[in-house]
Amino acid sequence: MDETTFRDLLARHWTTLFDPHTIEKGADYLRRGYVRRAPGRLTNMSWDPVQRVLRASGSGARPGSGPIELWFPEKHLWFIKGQNLGKALALRGHRRGALVAVRTKAPHWSLVMRFG
Prior knowledge:
Elements lengths: L2 H15 L2 H11 L3 E4 L3 E8 L4 E7 L8 E5 L5 E6 L1 E10 L2 E8 L4 E7 L1
Antiparallel strand pairs: 1-4, 2-3, 3-8, 4-7, 5-8, 6-7
């Protein structure tokens, strides 16, 4: 492959990777709450952007299979309630959000995480 062809391919790939639509889509992803990891099967997840509420549920969690990991776009102002959940622990606070871990107490679990 000659240098001109390589530069053309690189230019097309670069502009596709960083076009405004792609950047905005990535930014939207960080503006909402979501489940990053769940033990067993994640059966439901929804985000209400108006009320800033994350709802999730799962099944098949086994003892020792790890925590539920959640991203929430508010660093300090959140709380969690639900069924079959342990204490929530903030793993990392980011400038604009928090990574939170919650252990399950039973195979079936559900949670609501909201802006508070």
